[in-house]
Design a protein that fits this description.
InterPro entries: ARM-like, ARM-type_fold, Importin-beta_N, TPR_XPO7/RBP17, XPO4/7-like. It is found in: Cytoplasm; Nucleus. One of its GO terms (biological process) is protein export from nucleus. Belongs to the exportin family. Pfam families: IBN_N, TPR_XPO7. This protein has about 575 residues and is mainly α. Among the domains are: about 245-400; about 405-574. Helices cover about 70% and strands about 0% of the residues. The chain contains 24 helices and 2 strands. The chain has a two-stranded antiparallel sheet. A hairpin with a 2-residue loop joins strand 1 and strand 2 (about 130). It is globular. The relative contact order is 0.04.
Length: about 575
């Protein structure tokens, strides 16, 4: 059993404790080490022991233990005296300034202590001054030093911004909101302006991408900008899982930053200049810029801002090399989806570059759908974009052409053909079948149903042709004397997709836009699924296939909701 912290005298004993706590494999020793840690935090010797570990410890784990103890000490509900907290903050600032080459996790842990002290003491007054709000002035001293010092200064601001945004449920939420609001109003804009000026300095000089220090600095500054833009400005604590619905509630006092075209240009230029790990962060920032609340601008300002965003999109799509990186590709798809979330189709079509950009986006989407195995989680955002664009068509009052009647059928065709072509590759190469991930399949189909009803005649003609062709091939295989298992699996997979797709387009029918011609087309498609059901019934139990049967259940559910029920307004031609 480890010695109680009250009895620990030597540095060696403290370091043994650190070893057991962080890298030990013996569970009993680790539990004892955790108990000793709690004793240390409650002991009068805590600060002196932490100082001993920081100044004389021979391992990074000794320094990490000191930082952990200090973090717990300053976070207690009954706070330390103001003078003591000021001393701890100043000591850590001096310590990281004198040892800028500490391992990253130690620097991070120590800076988190500074962030906690600053947040919890935000309204503390000493000699008529808010003593813990001087942190930005302290950071500016770091920015005048070496690259390592600059990195530390930026991390301090980044951690502070994150800490201010973090809700501590063990404390009153009203107090957290009061602190966060004060920080937003007094400091956050200055931090963003400082970060943008640092990025401008980076771009002004020739970029040495081989210099690891410079790369790290750029990465930390981009993370700082992202933390500023991700701040919970109005205390909504938005659900991050619904990020495609998010609007960034930028304060009105930030208008001047957003109205300057140089701000957006800066991040587009950074995307084109930086390696993928960093350009991905630049795109993440642009996602937030694209999500800026509409009411921040007047109508002419909004049109100008949107025009600059569209120019940036055009430039990225004309130079698509960076999109071969999965991280960049994913963030760019999010960026495109946010554009339609925040701007109306009537506003988009008024942008001068719209015809060329919508063509480029359509080609990008088609290529993405054809390469179904590359970043499949990102396709959701592209389908979201097209779904919302097509859904907006009936409400567009502008005389400018939206061109969706040209491109939406191509998107639908690319989805259909790419899914059918994927079946042979999945079966022959024994890959994970996308059809097994029903949650993703249903989500994508529900998005596609809106897109597929645009120029529905083209979609219907394609599906009828593909269904007849594949059903005939399936029938031949059923009646063949020697069936090759792989061929049958491929044909069944294709039919499963086709049944899902028929269910999708039938389920996409809207009463107020539907016509007798469209209902007749639904009838043509539905008839083929019912014929397939009869064909499979005659061959039971030999020709039973779970994937086709699940697809049929999906189709029947969509057909029932659309054409069978007491809510129907009129008898359709189906």
């Amino acid at each position: 059993m480890l010695i109680s912290f009250f009895l620990l005298k030597s540095l060696a004993e403290l370091e043994v404790l650190c070893t057991h706590l962080y890298i030990g494999t013996d569970l009993t020793q680790r539990i004892e080490a955790e108990k000793a840690l709690l004793e240390l935090i409650d002991s009068p010797e805590c600060l002196s022991k932490c100082q001993l570990l920081l100044e004389q410890g021979t391992t990074s784990y000794a320094q990490l233990l000191a930082a952990t103890c200090l973090s717990k000490l300053v976070s207690r509900v009954s706070p330390l005296p103001v003078e003591q907290r000021v001393d701890i903050r100043n000591y850590i600032l001096h310590y990281v300034a004198s040892q800028p080459k500490l391992v990253p996790f130690v620097i991070q842990a120590l800076i988190q202590v500074i962030a906690k002290i600053t947040k919890l003491g935000w309204f503390e007054v000493q000699k008529d001054q808010f003593v813990f709000r001087e942190i930005i002035a302290d950071v500016k001293k770091f920015l005048q030093g070496t690259v390592e010092h600059c990195i530390i200064g930026v991390i301090i601001l980044s951690e502070l911004t994150q800490e201010m945004n973090l809700v501590d449920y063990s404390r009153p939420s009203a107090k957290h909101r009061k602190i966060a609001t004060s920080f937003r109003d007094t400091s956050l804009k200055d931090i963003l302006v400082l970060a943008c000026s640092l990025l401008k300095e980076v771009l002004a000089k020739p970029l040495n991408l081989q210099d690891q220090g410079q790369q790290n600095l750029v990465m930390q500054v981009l993370k700082l900008v992202l933390n500023c833009l991700n701040f919970d400005f109005i205390g909504s604590s938005a659900d991050e899982s619904a990020d495609d619905l998010c609007t960034v509630q930028i304060p009105t006092t930030w208008r001047t930053i957003f109205l300057e075209p140089e701000t957006l240009d800066l991040f587009f230029n950074l995307y084109h200049s930086l390696p993928p790990l960093l350009s991905q962060l630049a795109l993440s920032c642009l996602v937030q810029f694209a999500s800026t609340r509409r009411s921040l601008f007047s109508s002419p300002e909004r049109a100008k801002y949107l025009g600059n965003l569209i120019k940036g999109v055009k430039r990225i799509l004309e130079n698509p090399q960076g999109l071969s990186d999965p991280g960049n590709y994913h963030e760019f798809c999010r960026f495109l989806a946010r554009l339609k979330t925040n701007y109306q189709l009537g506003e988009l079509v008024m942008v001068k570059e719209y015809p060329e950009v919508i063509r480029l986006i359509a080609n990008f989407t088609i290529t993405s759908l054809q390469h179904w195995e590359f970043a499949p989680n990102s396709v959701h955002y592209l389908l979201t974009l097209w779904q919302r664009m097509v859904a907006s068509v009936p409400f567009v009052k502008s005389t400018e052409p939206h061109l969706l009647d040209t491109y939406a059928p191509e998107i639908t065709k690319a989805f259909i053909t790419s899914r059918l072509e994927s079946v042979a590759i999945v079966v022959r190469d024994h890959l994970d079948d996308p059809l097994d991930d029903t949650a993703t399949v249903f989500q994508q189909l529900e998005q596609l149903c809106t897109v597929s009803r645009c120029e529905y005649e083209k979609t219907c003609t394609l599906l009828v042709q593909l269904f007849d062709q594949n059903a005939q091939n399936y029938q031949k295989l059923l009646h063949s004397a020697s069936v090759i298992t792989v061929d049958m699996a491929i044909q069944e997979g294709r039919l499963a997709w086709l049944v899902y797709l028929v269910g999708t387009v039938v389920g996409g029918r809207l009463t107020y836009t539907s016509t007798d011609e469209h209902d007749a087309m639904d009838g043509e498609l539905s008839c083929r699924v019912f014929q397939l059901i009869s064909l499979m019934d005659t061959g039971l139990p030999q020709c039973s296939n779970e994937k086709i049967e699940l697809a049929i259940l999906w189709f029947l559910d969509q057909f029932r909701k659309t054409y069978v029920g007491d809510q129907l307004q009129r008898t359709s031609k189906v």
